[in-house]
Write a structure and sequence with these properties.
By secondary structure, this protein is α/β, with parallel strands linked by helices. It is about 40% helix and about 20% strand. It folds into two domains: about 130 residues, Four Helix Bundle (Hemerythrin (Met), subunit A); about 230 residues, Rossmann fold. It contains 13 helices and 18 strands. Helix 2 runs antiparallel to helix 3. The longest helix has about 40 residues. It binds 5-S-methyl-1-O-phosphono-5-thio-D-ribulose. 5-S-methyl-1-O-phosphono-5-thio-D-ribulose binds next to helix 2, helix 6 and strand 11.
Length: about 375
């Protein structure tokens, strides 16, 4: 995407091929900082501490982690056992986004077929780059497919503003290019459809208020930041035409794990008869899990992310305490929206209903792995 006229992605490989560059998303929107990842430990820390976040980007970063593991192997032969152990460490960085294990396994499986060290290194790099390009292209197609849904609402409203609501950041920052939930939004904007986006702030780390608002603002998309609890009220008053969110893991039966609070938006949308769409690339489907509520691992993060809030204070980013220091806090980072509350999925292959039959109808080759 272009930021201030300059093409930018949230991750890229430096020209010397030794360093992976990322935008440090903890500092946005107040500071724009590029960080260097040189080792597997750097990659794990960047994922855990959320310098990078969002399911597709976590996957791509981890894929580059496999490349860095091969590049920096202490053994000149780049032994397979060593690579397998490093990949286990990478996959344990965060539990919920299935893209992490998917991307690591994809790179590893190619590398393990080779027995020459330099070929392994170059294969790992090419595979990581391939995943990054494929995710960018998937998001572009998600935008094309989602555009027709927004177009239809605009037509029914006779060109009046289409009000969309999104939660967390499922934008290009989370996905290389375009985003998942934001891809149809950017496509609609670029096609001249009058749209406005309600941006849930997304406590505790405020990915909506910090990142989605920044992205949309840079692209010129009309938007308004709201508290996480405002969505129900807006829906009751006809101020939301469609909800679009991303996901970190979606079962092949249609249950959706996404940022905590997504489920409540889906409930409110159902109660108010508002379409609730989930945009995702196929890398975010978990083809092994059937029951999202019972089987998707939900990350629990440091309670201090709840007790403190971060913002800009006289030019410096600071954290301030908002609860009694000694009050226990519980930080569940994701929740699961059952398939029955999802109107449909917007994928790179098209739009489908949230059912096993329709999902496998779009991805028939996955039937064999189930
Ligand atoms: O904790 P985060 O910021 O990694 O959570 C991100 C989300 O929940 C996104 O909505 C999801 O990954 C979809 S990203 C395209």
């Amino acid at each position: 995407m272009k930021i201030d006229g300059k093409a930018l992605r949230p991750i890229w490989l430096d020209s010397d091929l030794n360093v992976v560059k990322i935008i440090d998303q903890r500092r946005l929107p107040h500071e724009f900082v590029i960080a260097d990842l040189e080792t597997v430990d750097d990659v794990i820390a960047a994922i855990k501490e959320m310098y990078v976040r969002g399911a597709p980007l976590i996957g791509v970063t981890a894929a580059y982690g496999v490349y860095l593991a091969a590049l920096n192997s202490p053994v000149k032969t780049v032994g397979n056992n060593y690579l397998i152990e490093e990949c286990k460490r990478l996959k344990a960085a965060r539990p919920t986004a299935v893209n992490l294990a998917w991307a690591v396994n994809k790179v590893l499986s190619e590398v393990l077929t080779l027995n020459n060290a330099s070929k392994k290194i170059s294969m790992a790099r090419k595979e990581a780059e391939k995943i990054a390009e494929a995710e960018a292209e998937n998001c572009r197609k998600i935008g094309e497919h989602g555009l027709s849904l927004i177009h239809e609402i605009s037509r029914k409203k006779q060109g009046d503003t289409v009000n969309l609501l999104t939660h967390c950041n499922a934008g290009w920052l989370a996905c290389i290019e375009y985003g998942t939930a934001t891809a149809p939004i950017y496509a609609a904007f670029n096609n001249g459809i009058d749209i406005h986006v309600w941006v849930d702030e997304t406590r505790p780390l405020n990915q909506g208020a910090r990142l989605t608002a920044w992205e949309l603002g840079k692209h010129g998309v009309k938007h308004t930041v709201i508290t996480d609890n405002a969505g129900g009220h807006l829906m009751q008053h006809g101020m939301v035409d469609m909800v679009i969110v991303g996901t970190d893991r979606t079962t092949f039966t249609g249950d959706v794990a996404n940022k905590i609070g997504t489920y409540l938006k889906a409930l409110a949308a159902r109660d108010n008869n508002i379409p609730f769409y989930v945009a995702l690339p196929s890398s975010t489907f978990d083809w092994k899990i059937k029951d999202g509520i019972k089987e998707i691992p939900i990350e629990e993060r440091d309670p201090d992310e709840i007790r403190y809030v971060q913002g800009l204070d006289r030019g410096t980013i600071r954290s301030v305490l908002i609860s009694p220091k000694e009050s226990p806090a519980a930080n569940f980072a994701f929740d699961v929206t059952p398939a029955r509350l999802v109107t449909g999925f917007i994928t790179e292959r098209g739009v489908c209903k949230a059912s096993e039959k329709d999902i496998l109808g779009l991805f028939p080759e996955k039937k064999v792995s189930i």
